Each structure stands twice: as structure tokens, then as C-alpha cells.
Amino acid sequence: MTTATFETLSQAQIDAARTAHPGAFGSSWATVKRWAPLVAAVIYVIVSLWYFEFGRLLDASERVLALLRNFVVWQDMDTWAYRQIYVGISQTLAMAFLGTLLGTLGSLVVGFMAAKNVMPFGFVRQIVRRFLDILRGIDQLVWGLVFVRAVGLGPLAGVLAIFVSDLGTLSKLYSEAIENIDRKQVEGIRSTGAGPLAVIRYGYIPQVLPVFISQSLYFLESNTRSATILGIVGAGGIGMIIIERFRASLYDQVAFVVLNVLVLIFAIDWLSKRVRLWAIGEQGER
Description:
Layout: H1 11-20, H2 28-51, H3 56-59, H4 61-72, H5 82-114, H6 122-137, H7 140-151, H8 155-179, H9 183-191, H10 196-235, H11 238-247, H12 251-279
Helix pairs in contact: 4-12, 5-8, 5-10, 5-11, 6-8, 7-8, 7-10, 8-10, 9-10, 10-11, 10-12, 11-12
InterPro entries: MetI-like, MetI-like_sf, PhnE/PtxC
GO molecular function: ABC-type phosphonate transporter activity
Subcellular location: Cell membrane
């Protein structure tokens, strides 16, 4: 058996083979399609570097080094207002906890109203879902600005911003968890003649409660960070202390406050992991 080479084939045979098997032969169009995304990406990166003036980082290198030096060199620590700092951290934690708690309680109701296997009226369900889309579509920071304007400066604005934002997101997550439950358990409860509330209590909630707890604990951790940012726009807590220290160029105190916030977030993450494991019955895993 011999293998034909291009030297032994006529041009007509090559053209016939190219027509019959176009994928086996390279083409200029195929080459363009293969390299066009890479060329476009390179051009986009070059244009972005020029448009956003990343070269200014080199001009600001001395200021950056001075700023970093001020972060790590702590001076006059005995004059720092430690009580004010830790009161602000306590307010931030309370703000995140209360906002998450209110969002969780509200989502327990709204989530069931948005689940198609619980709410039989499609019109009501669609209204609830569009309402949740509005809540999720507006960033938590924007809600913070809105409530600062509405109720004034202080932690109440932060609590309301976290509550509204969590209500939109947690309700969607809860409704999806409700829609994915095992229907046999629900049907078994319903077959005993139980009413709608009893079916929800004994058929739905035992299946979705571990998921609800896990998601709410995750949001508590996330909201602790968010509450810090909300404080910067006037919602109270440690965020206001951070922005005040920044404006006064007390960068060493800013670094101290940020380290304390990080320790708080690590502690919340550790505690929430233990609670999640307890809720799903995996107490042996650590």
C-alpha cells in the first residue's frame, strides 16, 4: 500500500480533495478566526494601559512608599482613642448581625412566596420576584446613601441598607432551595390531612433549614465587611472612624483598625463554619 503525495497528484485532484474535505486544508479565513480573538485582546490591553494612564503609578511610587511606611510605623500609640475604635467595631458587628437577622426573617416569608411549588398563583409569584429583582439590582452602598439621607447619619441607616439588600438576595436563594426539595416528604405530610402551614413546617422547613442557616451565616460574614464600607458613607460604625483617620492622615491608626476588622472577620468565619457543620449534622468534621 502506497501513500500519495502532493507531487504525484494533479491540481484537479487536489482541488477535488479540498472541496470534499475543507476542514483538512487551512484557509485564510480560518486563520483569521483563530488569531482574531488574541489580537483583539492584545489591542484591548494596550489601549487600556494608555487610556487609564497606568504609567502614573511610576510617578506616584514615592508617595506610595511613604504611605506604606506610615501604615507600618506606628507612633504615639498611647494617645490613640482605643475606646472609640472598639466601640465602632462593636457597632459594625451589631449592624451586620441585626441587618442579616432582619433580612433572614423577611426572606423566610418572601422566599416561600417566590417559590413556584408553594405559591400557586403565578401572578403573585411574578410580582414578588420582580420586587426582589429591584432590591438586588440596587447596590448595598446605594441603599446606604438612600437611608443616610432618609433617617440621618448613624448605624440605623446601615442596618436598613443591609436588611433591604439581603432581603432581595436571600429570598431568591431561599426560593431556589425550596423549589429543589424532595416532594415525597411534602406529599407524605399532606396525605395526613395537614394544613398548608403544617405542610410548610414539617415538610419544607426540615429540608431547607440547613441551607438557610448556611447561607445566612455566609451573609453575616460578608455583611461585616459591607458594614465597614457603609460606615464610610455615614452609616456609623468603624467605617466612619477609618475615614476620619484617613482625612487626618493618621495612617498608622487606619492600619490598626483594619487589622482589628480582619481579626473580627476571621473569628466570624471560624464560628460560622462550626455552626454550619452543626446545622448539617457534620459535627465530626473540623
